[in-house]
Design a protein that fits this description.
Number of helices: 11
Distance between the termini: 23 Å
Structural class: mainly alpha
Helix content: 55-70%
Strand content: under 5%
Low-confidence stretches: 5-24, 28-55
Oligomer: single chain
Mean pLDDT: 82
Number of strands: 0
Shape: globular
Length: about 290
């Protein structure tokens, strides 16, 4: 799913935190993944303050910058610009590859280095939370970021036989468009010059991109199951000196199952946020 940790990237410039990632990755909640969807609801406030006036929003943004410090603001602005550029490079490379080759086969191999670098670079968002320049839960951010890394390194990178699956293209396209929109949203928010189109895109593109990303992730994991079962990769069998066993195959099955109850929570939360931000509706969350 799409990553939804808003504050993790902006430090509050766009407000509070992808989810799943959430970039849609339910792995982050199991990322964006299912294991944290409920928690993410509290971190998806994007600092628009509902129907508040522009003057109050400007005052709030100024207060946040003052509390965070200019050095942290400069770093977060640089970080978000770099991540926006990185995912733009990835998008251009994907389009260029398809125009030249006319097929998706070989696409992942051609862009994997860029994907791995920028997705792994997102680990800094956990550091942002740890050192306090972003007011978001370290646990929530950690789960979301690690879910994407799990999908990249422990699924697609590790099982070369699935790299040409159409499902890989689904989550790559979803992640790429989502991250370009998300990081550009954060960047402009930190600069206090948020174009309406970026804001509109942030709260509309997910309607299509999140389901596409989740479908791509699930289908990719499903395609990996026969290989994992046959080779026993990442599994620990008994007997061993630690007397511990782990079956990666069943772990993947449980991960897939976790998408079912948790993705809807994240998706409908984002729909409520959309109404609040774009239409100024006052959303009252019910306590469980």
């Amino acid at each position: 799913m799409g990553r939804l940790t808003e504050a993790a990237a902006t430090g509050g410039g766009a407000a509070a935190a992808h989810a799943a990632s959430l970039p849609p990755t339910p792995l982050a909640l199991s990322s964006t993944s299912p294991g944290c969807v409920a928690t993410m609801a509290s971190s998806e406030e994007d600092g628009t303050n509902g129907g508040a006036s522009e003057a109050s929003e400007e005052k709030e943004a100024t207060g946040k910058r003052r509390r965070r410090g200019w050095l942290a603001t400069v770093w977060l602005t640089f970080y978000n610009i770099a991540m926006t550029a990185g995912w733009l490079v990835l998008a251009i490379a994907m389009v260029r590859f398809y125009m030249e080759k006319g097929t998706h086969r070989g696409l992942y191999k051609s862009i994997q280095k860029t994907l791995k670098f920028f997705q792994t670079f997102a680990l800094l968002e956990i550091v942002h939370c740890l050192i306090g320049i972003v007011p978001t839960s370290v646990l929530v951010t950690g789960v979301q970021v690690s879910s994407r890394i799990f999908m990249v390194w422990l699924i697609t990178h590790s099982i070369k036989a699935i790299q040409n699956e159409e499902s890989v293209v689904l989550f790559l396209v979803s992640w790429t468009v989502t991250e370009i929109t998300r990081y550009s949203f954060y960047t402009f928010s930190l600069l206090d010059h948020l174009p309406y189109f970026i804001k509109w895109a942030r709260y509309n593109f997910f309607i299509i991109l999140y389901p596409i990303g989740v479908a791509g992730e699930l289908l990719t994991i499903y395609a990996a199951l026969p290989y994992v079962k046959k080779t026993g990769m990442y599994s620990i069998r008994l007997p061993n000196k630690y007397n511990v066993s782990f079956d990666y195959y069943y772990f993947l099955l449980i991960t897939m199952a976790s998408y079912i109850p948790l993705f809807p929570q994240l998706y409908f939360h984002m729909l409520r946020q959309r109404r609040k931000v774009l239409h100024g509706e006052v959303i009252v969350e019910k306590d469980d």
